[in-house]
Design a protein that fits this description.
- The chain is an alpha+beta fold and 375 residues long.
- The protein is 45% helix and 23% strand.
- It is built from 14 helices and eleven strands.
- It has a six-stranded antiparallel barrel. It has a five-stranded antiparallel sheet with strand order 1-2-9-4-7, with helices on one face.
- A hairpin with a 2-residue loop joins strand 5 (103-118) and strand 6 (121-135).
- The radius of gyration is 22 Å and the shape is globular.
């Protein structure tokens, strides 16, 4: 198959029909979904061989981004994912995406704003609305704005998605990223000051000792605006670094911004939990363990977790499958060795049955991995 001709034809057909609708964004998701359904299966290595020139040097969303069609109104992207899951986010464009290879856990959310912190950042409450496991061939719409807040956590390696989307025309709109459960901010809102701040953090992290780097971050916390402080605390060398140091930095930020203290602290620690578990999951090869960890990283709704476990492990109750997997993981990835009695109590707890409450079960449920069961 000549992939260049194939995607050129698809893009031109969408463009022709959409032009008749005066490029109304409301019509593109249905057009894109119909077009995506007609795309034949893609041989990924052959696609890369034929269209390696479409690799985008200036855009890095997935592990390997290809723009196989583009004009001033429309883009078709093939995104290849290895280990990097996407954040909880919204879009300033519309269209549709199709899973071409692999599996993904898609979680949709809604956000209720409660407090404007800065032009770029709000506090509020993020709740999960729907979750599903997508398989190869599944197609879903992309709606612009906060009506479609989602994350796709890719279960397969690699996972390949095709995105048919509009070109964002209004670059002044916010494209928020969400920090569960209380914050949203626009990571694309980069002033020159913030770019200098990020460069400063990177340089100081590379040349400084741990103490001097902390002093530099504290200086930012004590002098900068709230969204700059959030940027500093989200900086990877800070958020995934030493936990005791992070606690001191978060505490300093909460003292500086007391009105946002709860939202800031709870959200940053939840981000830390998810990042740590995601890093641990990369070292896990057993599929059942990887699946349970994906649920625990991305879901806070116990009923949704039970539902996904029941679908994935149909021969067991959700509690039985979760307990079995945890016993398999015992002694690694911060999971202790679990006795059969404790596993049985945990299974009953998950399934909503009467269970024997004891210190061992309490210690198990206190694990960061299992925190969603207590949400």
């Amino acid at each position: 198959m000549d992939y260049n001709k194939e995607f050129q034809k698809i893009g031109e057909e969408i463009e022709t029909v959409w032009r008749r609708r005066d490029y109304d964004p409301a019509f593109l998701p249905d057009l894109a979904m119909a077009a995506a359904a007609k795309v034949p299966e893609v041989d990924t290595p052959e696609l890369i061989r034929q269209m390696s020139s479409t690799y985008d040097l200036n855009y890095s969303f997935s592990s390997y981004d290809m723009h196989v069609f583009r004009n001033e109104n429309l883009r078709i992207e093939i995104l290849h994912w290895l280990t990097n899951p996407t954040s909880i986010h919204e879009h300033i464009f519309c269209g549709a995406f199709r899973l071409m290879k692999g599996r993904s856990l898609q979680v949709e959310h809604e956000f209720t704003p409660a407090q404007r912190l800065t032009y770029n950042c709000d506090a509020g409450h993020l709740t999960q609305r729907h979750s599903e496991v997508l398989n190869s061939g599944d197609i879903r719409p992309i709606i612009s704005g906060s009506d479609f807040i989602h994350a796709n956590f890719h279960l397969g390696r690699p996972t390949v998605t095709m995105v048919i989307r509009s070109v964002a025309q209004n670059q002044t709109l916010h494209q928020y990223t969400y920090l569960p459960p209380y914050l949203r901010y626009d990571p694309f809102y980069k002033t020159e000051h913030r770019k200098r701040l990020c460069a400063r953090l990177e340089y100081m992290a590379q040349i400084g000792q741990s103490g001097s780097f902390e002093v530099d971050v504290l200086d930012i916390i004590n002098t900068a605006a709230f969204d700059d402080v959030l940027e500093a605390l989200m900086y990877p060398r800070v958020s995934s670094g030493d936990e005791v140091r992070l606690a001191r930095l978060i505490d300093a930020a909460c003292q500086r911004f007391p009105d946002a203290a709860t939202a800031l602290s709870v959200s940053l620690w939840e981000v830390r939990r998810r990042e740590r578990l995601t890093a641990q999951r990369r070292q896990v090869e057993v599929q059942g363990q990887r699946f349970l960890m994906a649920l625990m990283i991305n879901l806070s709704d116990t009923e949704a977790i039970r539902g996904h476990l029941a679908e994935e492990f149909a021969d067991e109750t959700p509690g039985q499958s979760a307990a079995r997997i945890l016993r398999e993981m015992g002694g690694s990835h911060d999971v202790p060795v679990i006795s059969q009695d404790t596993a049985a109590s945990f299974a009953d707890f998950v399934d909503g049955n009467p269970y024997e409450n004891n210190a061992a079960l309490d210690a198990l449920l206190a694990l960061p991995l299992l925190r969603p069961f207590l949400a």
